[in-house]
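Re: the 217-residue chain
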Amino acid sequence: MSYMLVGHLPELVLISLVCAGLAIGFCRFFVVAKYEATETVYITEDSDHPKQEIVDFAQITCTKSIIDVVIYYNNMQEEEDYESFLKKLSILQDENSKMVTVRYVDRDPYRARRVVSSVISEAFSLVNQLGDMHAEIVEQPTVTEKPINKNYVLYGVVGFLTAAMVGILFFLVKALTDKNIYDEDDVMYYLGLPVLATFGEDEAEGKGGSHAERTAD
């Protein structure tokens, strides 16, 4: 069994490297790049109920009226509706720092920035109409320089490990179902007989065959 695994180690490593390369190629050419834009709002100290206002502001940014306006002004009607838009939008609340961070993921980094800015702008417009909330922007919209979903190292490692595990499983099954006798240990394992003597390869061939091809009955 150990001979089966060790003997195929070069092939196993080669196949794993090839699969790692294929995984990286898949990530490079077939995975659509996505960028994340963020903007942060601070609930000011003069708020009477800052924790509640943090929750309120986070809820306001997700209201359908605001999202519909953002979709319209960014010409996204054919691509997005309210439900699909929310899947790309995330709101992070931090009650300790009194901050709310709005994040949006999109294939176009410039549009992601515009969308986040639009969401915050529309939310502030509604807040000003309500007149009972105090907030200010502390971080202008920023966008990740690299795609957040194109991690070549991760794809390569996953491809390598997946191929290695599948290969090891294949060779283990093959070893468990293989009844050929390759060495003295196999004689003891399959036949339960002690090995009294062994012959070299040349001697075995001179006597009509190799012991490596005999099988246990």
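The longest strand covers residues 35-43.
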